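Hi R.,

Here's the chain you asked about this morning:
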Amino acid sequence: MAPMPTARIERMAVLDGKLYAAGGQNDARRKAQLPMVERYDLATKSWEAVAPMATPHENHAVAVLDGKLYAVGGYNGSDLSSVERYDPATNAWKAVAPMMAARSAVGVAVLDGKLYAVGGYNDNDGRLSSVERYDPALDAWEAVAPLAAARANLAAAVLNGKLYVMGGNDENEALSSLERYDPATNAWEAAAPLTTARSFQGITVARWRLGVGRGRRVLWRVEGGEESKDSIDPACAMTTPNSLPLPLT
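And here is the predicted structure, written out as tokens:
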């Protein structure tokens, strides 16, 4: 696969069969947040630049909803509440309603046509347990039930109509706990924990199972969980340890 034109850490998503790298940073001192966005075409095996974001973001989150790419929160000298939306039809970004709370290291996922922003961090409140939900029809956020455990640098994914949040870190350590949100009851419940505590992990859904990879300590291990069994089991290991894998949303 061709390398990206711009070296970066964070943040990727798939939209219309193409891979987008949006924002991030390429300076370990956090002095070089990036607005640039690049798109990979599998057919041509090449990258191209698309419109940049209005605000450089790092430690943000990206998700795809209704054929558009959202960049949520993050950090740019301070923690951000801003949200931008990219339309590939016009090759343009547009600011949408900001979140109620500034959040970096936030988890995002799309469930039932709405965008959820879960946990994260800001300088005023530290690690967050609060959860917000964005309705694109109303261009508005609303609060939903909070997590039981405040966490940042978490992973979030949707499986069988429910939102799963796992891992991350609190003020002291990486977490193994997993919480599951049911939008019908607006309630979270504990589910089987990861076998290894981890933060900054990647997550994806494959064949109706959750797959979780890596951790802050540079892990090879991959774990998989199945809702019907409410269990997490080790899966095959990665061939290369990865300290910051990026899930494809």
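One quick note: The first strand starts at residue 12 and ends at 15.

Cheers,
M.
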